[in-house]
Amino acid sequence: MERPAGERSPPLLGCPDRKVGIERGPLAFLKSAPMSRSRTPLQVIVYQDVLCAWCYLAERRLSLLRDELKDLVRWKERPFPMRVHDSVPTQKERARRMLDVRRARLEPEGERLSADLWTQSDVPRSSVPALVALEAAKLQGPSARAMLLQAMRRAALEQGINVSRSDVVFELAAHVGLNMNRFVAAYQSPETKRLVLEEHRIAAERGVRGVPTLVIGQRWMLTGLRELSEYREHLLKCLEKSGLGGGAPDQLVH
User: Fold this and answer.
1) What is the per-residue pLDDT across 47-92, written as a single tens digit (0 to 9) for each?
2) What is the pLDDT of residues 148-159, one digit of tens each?
3) How far apart are CA 215 and CA 15, in angstroms?
């Protein structure tokens, strides 16, 4: 069963690269020219936000598939801020975030989630700073980004700490062992923030409306939290359609 994305978004969206017809269903297979058989890995872009409880759960499920699919898939995590503009969340928005957390807590992996982030006075005004921190950490390698992401998610979604504050960001970055001179310089660079905002703009133009969203092979889009078995089924099907799973790719299959 599909779970809501962090932002209220349609369950299925359009093609990331062009405006074409789509089939409706658990996964939209988008019309495109048949792909040539290739042994290059299938690219999966995961759009996510540090402050999103559904992304917290999706990452736990997708991490199992990373181990299963190994070199067949090349994963890319990209930022998609739920809150782009710097402003105090309204009471309605805070209530919606708290409801998301309460619903996410019902999932098997969600028992540690807490809604404290949205009940206190020190609430995040924007999720951009946290995503900028991840881009800054990535300059020190994928493992540096992964460690900071894990630390930030635990702080925000389990402990209710406002990870959009720079003092919190610096403390967490130091805790996971980043080179702080390099990290602070990248974090404070206007170019890093511009990168996050540009990623958001491009993704929105391609049909991304919320998180978590997976763009698979630049041909298919899957939005909202899914069961592990559903993620696995869709990825295996996409591998087959891309000529990586033993079957010939089709132009349009649901």
Assistant:
1) 999 999 999 999 999 999 999 999 999 999 999 999 999 999 999 9
2) 999 999 999 999
3) 9
State residue 65 phi and psi, 5-degree precision. -75, -30
47 DSSP β-pair partners: 78, 213
Domains and CATH numbers, the chain: 28-241 (3.40.30.10)
Q: What is the residue whose two structure tokens read 């005004």? A: 125
**Strand partners of residue 77:** 46
Cα separation, 239 vs 42, in Å, equals 7
pTM beyond cutoff 0.90: no
Task: Say if residues 211 and 5 touch (Cβ distance below 8 Å).
Answer: yes
Strand intervals (E) in the chain: 28-29, 42-48, 73-79, 213-216, 220-223
b/e burial code for range 102-124 (CB count within 10 A of at least 16 → b): ebbbebeebeebebebbeeeebb
